[in-house]
Amino acid sequence: MTARRPDRSIATVCLSGSLPDKLEAAAAAGFEGVEIFENDLLTFDGTPAEVRAMCEDLGLAITIFQPFRDFEGMPEGLRVRAMDRAERKFDTMQALGTDLLLVCSSVHPAALPGADRAAADLREMAERAAKRGLRVCYEALAWGRHVSRWRQAWEIVRAADHPALGLCLDSFHTLSLGDDVDDLAATVPPEKLFFLQLADAPRLAMDVLSWSRHHRLFPGQGELPVADFLRGVMAAGYAGPLSLEIFNDEFRAAPSRRIARDGLRSLAWLEEQVGLAELPALPRLAGVEFVEFALDHESREDLARMAASLGFRRAGMHRSKDVELWRSGGANLVLNSEPDSAASERFEARGPCVCAIAFRLDDPERLVARAEALSYPVWRERIGAGERRIPAVRAPDGTLVYLVADLAEGERPIWEDDFHLEQDRADGGFLGIDHAAQAVAPGLMDSFALFYRALFGMEPDAPWELPDPYGLVRSRAFVGGQGAVRLPLNVSESGRTGTGRFVSALAGAGVHHIAFAAADAAEAAAGAVARGAPLLEIPANYYEDLGARIGLEEEELAGHAAHHLLYDRDAAGGEFRHAYTHAFRDRFFFEIAARGGGYAGFGAANAAVRMAAQRKTPRSRGDAGGEQ
Amino acid sequence: MTARRPDRSIATVCLSGSLPDKLEAAAAAGFEGVEIFENDLLTFDGTPAEVRAMCEDLGLAITIFQPFRDFEGMPEGLRVRAMDRAERKFDTMQALGTDLLLVCSSVHPAALPGADRAAADLREMAERAAKRGLRVCYEALAWGRHVSRWRQAWEIVRAADHPALGLCLDSFHTLSLGDDVDDLAATVPPEKLFFLQLADAPRLAMDVLSWSRHHRLFPGQGELPVADFLRGVMAAGYAGPLSLEIFNDEFRAAPSRRIARDGLRSLAWLEEQVGLAELPALPRLAGVEFVEFALDHESREDLARMAASLGFRRAGMHRSKDVELWRSGGANLVLNSEPDSAASERFEARGPCVCAIAFRLDDPERLVARAEALSYPVWRERIGAGERRIPAVRAPDGTLVYLVADLAEGERPIWEDDFHLEQDRADGGFLGIDHAAQAVAPGLMDSFALFYRALFGMEPDAPWELPDPYGLVRSRAFVGGQGAVRLPLNVSESGRTGTGRFVSALAGAGVHHIAFAAADAAEAAAGAVARGAPLLEIPANYYEDLGARIGLEEEELAGHAAHHLLYDRDAAGGEFRHAYTHAFRDRFFFEIAARGGGYAGFGAANAAVRMAAQRKTPRSRGDAGGEQ
């Protein structure tokens, strides 16, 4: 961190619970200040002086008191009332020990237009504030009645010309209107930039008021160019705190400490983007080295049988632990039944499940340092003599993400230290792990997004909607290393969808779908069928429609049908051929996937057929998958 | 039902599950036809001929096959492919045994503009269809690339001028754009009106595509003027089926039979609105006669103590059952501990809860007949000799709604038949039951809306959002009899809000809040405080803000504070004074409420303070409420 990092602040409205809960969560996460949102004070059964004392005890500055609404431009009788109201709020601010009030542009139906009148009102308010040593900043709400842009707000502040009156900028109010701050430095003197609020959001085509009130996100979780915005504001000489003001229904329903930690991480990431502070550099991701399963002996036997049916062979036994390595070409599965381990804890809580995934990247220790700087929990396993310790970080659901060095030709792979290897790598089979999808409870999605983006530098794909027969599934993939690591996240409000059922089985979130990259999908699927793999039966109607829709020849269609293969083609002609298995004990399933011509998706067009087929014959096959 | 009632049809996309599930649910609800939504066929692992046979077995006509997308206006090479695609879908239709295909206006980026070209394409398609005895109808999608209004679609159909080509109308696509069908009769000849799709929706300010794909509702559940639309279409001579086409995330996640039943009810209600069919007339609602609680003896004692603290007195014992009547003025509470009863079943499933509510209305038996016509379950209790049988209907959560005749002066009230009365009505106390609020799981909200609107004729208020400290609560009140019956419905996606917790405790839904109407709120609250009622403590900061915001005098503020009273004032000067209790065992709570000057709301402005205060001291008072 450099000396000039601005203070970090968060509005109490971002967090759930009572005012003391919120303050404690903000302090525990490491914020230096809080915005006191008035509603949180009104519902608190202590005095403003007690709030001040709590903040002092926690080392939190009160950066601003907000919001003061519907002030400027009121007709005469109401104008007097508005001034009285301001005086009463100044009393509260002095008891709180904060000197800055946020006034947002009026939405009152009786508010009169005209910058002169607004300037006169704000000037009087600032004069009254100044008498008490207080200050006022004026913010353009994106849906303000007469003032919705920061340039309009600035015209009023400029005309009012009072030292106790300045501007409050807010990334959401600016970016949601498609506006920017490119001319801020040329327009507003630095001493008039009193306060800065930061929020991101997904791009939604809805009214800006609802968008703002329910769907804001922390920087990096959404799609707005918040870093560009912040760069513009800093270039204009802003010297105050960076303050998060997020109205989000899910944040308000989530534990306040988790949300506060995510808020701090998002600011640290944003500061890095803008050059206000440094973090250990982002990794270069090279692939998924393995997926690890937590199993008991019975489920391990069943899963090994299912893996064998997909062409995997046992490649080694761990030197000191009850762990097997199964391998097909470049795809590695670790089957862990070690007692008293991270895996066994996971098994006890959830039954058979994916307990870890490993990324290959340039420098594991640098990633560990980055995780520590972002307060993501780091985990180091207990190891036997001569074994290599692989560092890991914990994803928001507790899944371990191991960090494995991407080896140059000839370097010694991790497996040779830890395993008695029975088989080496050059044996055909899969190219590697194409993608690993996670089912995520709705309230965890944004935490995952931040984890993959801020810690690993993965970027989100456009979101998809997948029609499960029992409700909607929303999917958004995070991709790193130019496609070396692909992680779709699936979320469903419905507990009856496949995703909803996985979320229940996995206690909130977990990897539920692992796709193996094949050079030739038909060959891989044919082998799997021959070995009795539980591949999904695809209805003939699907192939009939595929013929009508894409115009594949009958022969090709028949080949796909024979191999249980689904097919997709993108606008540029990229092709995707893929087949799925039934689920293993309702916990996870596998896919054989072959990409061609730069295809970058996941076959979303086929998801409805896949999901219906998975529901059609649940757990009725015992031959290969142990899915009784 | 009159002879000319159109057939009732529903699109398979409205319902959850596999295609056979959907067909069975539609038939069980009483639909005469289904639209086969193509995706449901593609994911079905049987032939179209098998679908045809299933429908025949179930007595369902296939009213249409849909959708055929992106057909008209394609550039030459793609045009040939589109025609081939049509021929393949005609094959499917013939196997299905349906003669009508829905073509919706193209959204393809390559689609060429121009009505002539579109007309030529559709004419050729119609000609090909006609050769097989099939027909085609063309629908303007509200977000179509070149065609988004029915008048544009009609110009194309008119120009194509083929007997096998007609128009498909859809209430959502028309009404979502603020359009109407006022000139339909003057514009389109009846024989060109091939098909009609009906959907309602809440008024949402979002892009029309997302609105349509996720938020459609059955007629009567939303806010669009669907009845006006249907009147216009029928006036134009439409003679086909009325078909529901609803894309709704919650419907797709809900049990298909419940949703199908609601669909049929909504059509019956809509037909009544438009004069296509009759139902026994709507009731005249006069009030809430009583609220009934399912209790064991221990919780009954506790609740009786809490009721006494609010000014209720035991007014009678049931002649044959273990049931007490508690009364304060016009407000009646029935405390039911009868074993082997509807109440005891409820108690066993949920613990202490509201198991019934009784409406006073003009003609209970006519309402029973209406309920039967709408397939709402009717319930008649077992009674003792000489007792009166009060009919009831079951709300979507299983709560009984008793139907009590509104008496003229001098008629014998129900209580005298069934109870040994210890006390008569003229004893001061509350005026009656002001409102009873229900906590409802998100997926049940629309079923409740239909129940209150279609069966009882209640109308929804504007929706409110209430900020609980642990998430958002959305509230929408249904009001009947000019305010005689007021029933707010509260829903929350968060399980951590008060509403979310009530929903869990009440197993999906239930009355969780009963407000008693007081002539003088201060007097009623003072009495309650004196008797030790567990009224919520309201923070001083609330009164400080009330003074600043509304400008009440200090003396009045102090009076409110002394009596735990919240205060609200509407734009017309109507006033609301109200106080709340803590919750009784996390199941329900009470309110003392006084309306003045025509105030019609529920004090939503104070909800945040109420909800925070209820979370502040949960279950810590044992003196009056038995809330250990």
Automatic annotation (TrEMBL), chains A, B:
Mg(2+) binds at H435, H513, E591. Its cofactor is a divalent metal cation. Belongs to the bacterial two-domain DSD family. This is 3-dehydroshikimate dehydratase. PROSITE patterns: VOC. It is an enzyme of class 4 (lyase). Catalyzes the conversion of 3-dehydroshikimate to protocatechuate (3,4-dihydroxybenzoate), a common intermediate of quinate and shikimate degradation pathways. One of its GO terms (molecular function) is isomerase activity. It catalyses: 3-dehydroshikimate = 3,4-dihydroxybenzoate + H2O. Residues 284-406, 432-568 form the VOC domain. Pathway: Aromatic compound metabolism; 3,4-dihydroxybenzoate biosynthesis. Its EC number is 4.2.1.118. A divalent metal cation binds at E139, D170, Q197, E245. Keywords: Isomerase, Lyase, Metal-binding. HAMAP family: DSD. InterPro entries: DSD, Glyas_Bleomycin-R_OHBP_Dase, Glyas_Fos-R_dOase_dom, IolE/XylAMocC-like, VOC_core, Xyl_isomerase-like_sf, Xyl_isomerase-like_TIM-brl. It comes from the Bacteria.
